Amino acid sequence: MLNFELNPNIPTGDLEEKWQNHKFASQLVSPNNKRQFEVIVVGTGLAGASAAASLGELGYKVKSFTYNDSARRAHSIAAQGGINASKNYKNDGDSTYRLFYDTIKGGDYRSREANVYRLAEVSTSIIDQCVAQGVPFAREYGGLLDNRSFGGAQVSRTFYARGQTGQQLLLGAYSALMRQVAAKNVELHTRSEMLELVVHDGRAVGVVVRDLLTGQVSSHSAHCVVLATGGYGNVYYLSTNAMMCNASAIWRAHKKGAAFANPCYTQIHPTCIPAGEDFQSKLTLMSESLRNDGRVWVPRDFDEARSPADIPEDERDYYLETKYPAFGNLVPRDVASRNAKTVVDQGRGVGSLKNGVYLDFSDALGRDGEDTIRGKYGNLFDIYQRITGEDPYKHPMRIYPATHYTMGGLWVDYNLMSNLPGLFVVGEANFSDHGANRLGASALMQGLADGYFILPYTLGNYLSNHLGEAKVSDREPAFKQAESKVDSGTKRYLSNMGTKSIDHFHRELGKIVWDYIGMSRNRAGLERALSDIPALAHEFQKDMKILGSADGLNQSLEKAGRVADFFELAQLMAKDALEREESCGGHFREEHQTPEGEALRHDDDFSFASAWEWTGDPKKAKLHKEDLNFEFVTPTQRSYK
Amino acid sequence: MEEKINVTLKVWRQTSPNEPGFFEIIEANDISTDASFLEMLDVVNERLLDIDREPIAFESDCREGICGTCGLMINGQAHGPEKATATCQLHMRTFKNGDNIIIEPWRADAFPIIKDLVVDRSPFDEIIESGGYISVNSGAAAEANQIPVPKEVADTAFDAAACIGCGACVAACPNSAAQLFTAAKIQHLNLLPQGQAERYNRAESMIEKMEEFFGTCTNHGECESACPKEISIDFIAWTNRDFIKSKLRNPKKANYK
Amino acid sequence: MQKVSAEQKIKTRKEKLKKTRFRIKLPWPLSIYQTYVGKKWVMALTGIGLLGFVLVHMIGNFHLYEGPTQTHEYAELLRDLGGHLVPRTLILWLLRIGLIAAFALHIHSAYSLSKRNVITNSQYRGGRKYVVANYASRTMRWTGPIIGLYLIYHLADLTWGHFNPDYVRGDPYHNVVASLSSIPVAALYIFANIALALHIFHGTWSIFQSLGINSPRFNPYRQALAGIFALVIFAGNISFPIFVQSGVIDDRGDSIFETQPPGNSES
Question: What's the complex ipTM?
Answer without folding.
Answer: 0.97
